[in-house]
Amino acid sequence: MNWEVLQKGFKKEQITALENRFLVGNGYLGVRGALEEYTAEELPAVNLAGIFDQVGDAWREPINAPNGIYTYICVDGKTLLAQDGEMKEHEMRLDFRHGICHRKTVWKTERGEVTVTSERFADHENVHRIAMRYTVRADFHAEVELFTGIDGHMWEINGPHFDSLAGRCENGRLVMEGVTHEKGATVCVEETVRADFPKESKTEEADRRLMHHFSLVTEKDRDYTIEKAIVVFTSQDDDFSKAQADELLDSFEREGYEAAKRVQEASWEEIWKYGAVEIDGDEDAMKALNYSLYHLQSIAPRHAKSMSIPARGLSGQTYKGAVFWDTEMFILDYFLFTRPAVAHTLLRYRVDTLSGAIKKAKDYGLDGAFYAWESQEGGYDACSDYNVTDVFTGRPMRTFFKDKQIHISAAIVYGIMRYTKITGDDSLLKEGGLKTVIECAKFYYSLLLKRVAGTEYELHDVIGPDEYHERVNNNGYTNRMAKMTLQSAADILNNLDSYGKDAAESISALYPVKELAGKFADAAENLYIPEPGDDNVIEQFDGYRKLEDCSIDTVRSRLLHEKEYWGGAYGVATHTQVIKQADVVAMLNLYSDEYPPEVLKANWDYYEPRTEHGSSLSASMYAMLACKCGMPQKAYPFFIKSAKADLVEGGKEWAGLIYIGGTHPAAAGGAYMIAVEGFGGVSFAENGIRVNPRLPGDWSGMRFYVCSGGERYYVNISGEDVKVEKID
Ligand code: BGC
Q1: Is ligand 1 within 6 A of the CB of residue 607?
Q2: Which of 506, 524, 382 is closest to 448 using CA atoms?
Q3: Does residue 199 surpass a pLDDT of 70?
Q4: How far apart are CA 312 and CA 662, in angstroms?
Q5: How far apart are CA 552 and CA 353, in angstroms?
Q6: Radius of gyration over alpha carbons of the chain, in Å?
């Protein structure tokens, strides 16, 4: 397979999309695929994981570090900038096998042609480091001024995040240090430059930019190359000091770009050894899928013990750098199946932010743990009460995502229980997970209602995954996930001894074990789950089917503005059956074994034409359920949509007037689930893995590795033939 994404030509309107497509990252930082000469206007970013800042009442968001990539040239007195669009040739290329982004640009100047080539990567061995190489060549004796340094004018949505930003030169290296507004954290960027020409430069500082300035008179057709390492660290890093930063720059000065690149390549080869999926008969699908996996690997917090993945990965500040249910329900499986240690890190983050969830529940007068809908550090909920801006009035609209999307706590329980079941490792449960599950169950328990004459418990005033219908009663997905949570907690409490003496004692010291187990079991048993109707369709929430039943096109035709929000109080979808994303279908996908095939199919058929797929999460749930209904052909376009979410244009970039562009890790994770669990038919049973493939049209085979119970298996599907081999 060709592990390359190539983009030839230049269009100004594609700049931001390409920055997402050509992103390189290593879990600690993400570098948007911006050209070196881009300034804040083009939205370049070195986006940092897990460090946030808030200015005034604006949204709290992750930090973009001062841009150490910043480099440009002047030839014969004219500054050559791609954004001016006057190039003769231009191409970008991503080697996604090794996480290396390349560019080549040719300008035609009055005296001849000037070519710039560059490449860069976010170092996977040393996650604080970015390495780059930048080459200029002219086919004439050109007067070239080469500027490279650190740009302190970052792209910031709700900044400025640095109250002070100071630059200095330290033994020929440039250093820029910012102090964040809210917490006074420091973010430091240091760089060093090697050159294959006599390296005499001036250092210039102006307007928050600190630059080396090289003046060259080039020989005809000779390459002039600089190699540059940029190290980023913050006062929030647990284990990284200035001395280590200096050592990373020293070693780069000694060994150079090529040596660092060889290590980078080897490190990615290790990743792909078990992390890639091979498909026979469909090169396009295989490439799109592995490109999605590239993105997941580029944002995996391998360097941390307790950290999660934001909804837009490390592609910028959209969605406030916050963690959503996307992680547990869409992204987790890839790591769980291929790199369980990363899955552990993702869930550890939830266990470690339990206190934030307990506080949130308390603030609503509820018991237990209500996880943040948009979780930042410490479990702080970044979701605002007014999360959408009305396009007509410019006023903030009251939304209830944060208050009512109670299914978030169940997603965390789902993730923890799934991790435990598939890995057979109960350490997460013993180290805080038991308490997490119990607190989430307490949360749902405190929300249960019973009608005066009723026998069943109900959950009212919620928002399901379909966000367009707010504050509904008995959303099927939510109720089923709450039931799972209550049942998981009851099982845990009834089997406390199986987690060892210490865990049993500490839980017994915290809770009235018997009493809670009884309450949770009763609640799980008697929580109302909407049943299939005469036509086998399950109503998404009470009264859903009484809403206007019209097509998506009809709803769309009623829009008065293309960016208008479809949900909430006045949305065009609100009083109709048109939904944003998989909801009942998401529930049936998770619990498909509880329903006969005709129910699964009837609901797929009913809901699909009524689903806008306005979230990139939706397609994978439809594809998964289609596979479980034995319809891999119907699943296929949804698979392609998920796998290509960051490879083709056309994704939703606006919610009302809020820019929500960036990469789509949940779609990438969804693509993996469809391939391996949907088409590959992998599932986990007590005694190991089961593989029951349902390959779509052209696919004649698949090969991949999956982990289960501490073992790794090689799965080789060839037509009807399935081989599963344990790997040593
Ligand atoms: C979706 C949510 C999702 C969030 C982040 C929203 O548009 O409706 O389900 O969690 O985006 O991806």
Answers
A1: no
A2: 524
A3: yes
A4: 5
A5: 39
A6: 26
Look at ligand 1, atom 11, and give the residue with the nearest C-alpha.
Answer: 615
Question: Is the predicted pLDDT of residue 656 greater than 80, yes or no?
Answer: no
CA 144/CA 700 separation, integer angstroms: 55
CA of 220 to the centre of ligand 1 (A): 53
Q: Which of 37, 42, 177, 467 is catalytic?
A: 467
How remote is the CA of residue 673 from the centroid of ligand 1, in Å?
18
d(CA 116, CA 39) in angstroms, rounded, equals 18
Q: Is 539 a catalytic residue?
A: no
**Could you report the per-residue pLDDT of 482-495, keeping only the tens digit for each?**
999 999 999 999 99
Q: Is 326 in the pocket of ligand 1 (CB under 6 A)?
A: yes
Question: Strand 143-151 to strand 209-217: parallel, antiparallel, or no bridges (unpaired)?
Answer: antiparallel
Mean predicted confidence (pLDDT) in 408-435: 98
Q: Which residues pair with 658 in a beta bridge?
A: 655
Give CA–CA dist 203/383, Å, rounded: 43
Q: Tens of pLDDT along 206-255?
A: 889 999 999 999 999 999 999 999 999 999 998 899 999 999 999 999 99
CA distance 669 to 295: 9
Is 191 within 8 Å of 68 (Cβ atoms)?
yes
Q: Which of 374, 399, 565, 617 to mutate to test the pocket of ligand 1 (most atoms within 8 A of CB)?
A: 617
Whether the CA torsion 526, 404, 565, 381 is positive or negative: it is negative
Nearest CA owner, ligand 1 atom 12: 311
The β-bridge partners of 725 are 714
Phi, psi of 268 (to 5 degrees): -70, -35
CA-closest residue to ligand 1 atom 1: 615
Q: From 127, 93, 69, select the one nearest 21 (Cα to Cα).
A: 93
Question: Which protein residue has the closest C-alpha to ligand 1 atom 6?
Answer: 615
d(C-alpha 272, C-alpha 635), whole Å:
26
> What's the 3-state SS for 546-571?
HCECCCHHHHHHCCCCCCCCCCCCCC
Q: Is the CB of 582 under 6 A from ligand 1?
A: no
**CB of 440 sitting under 6 A from ligand 1:** no
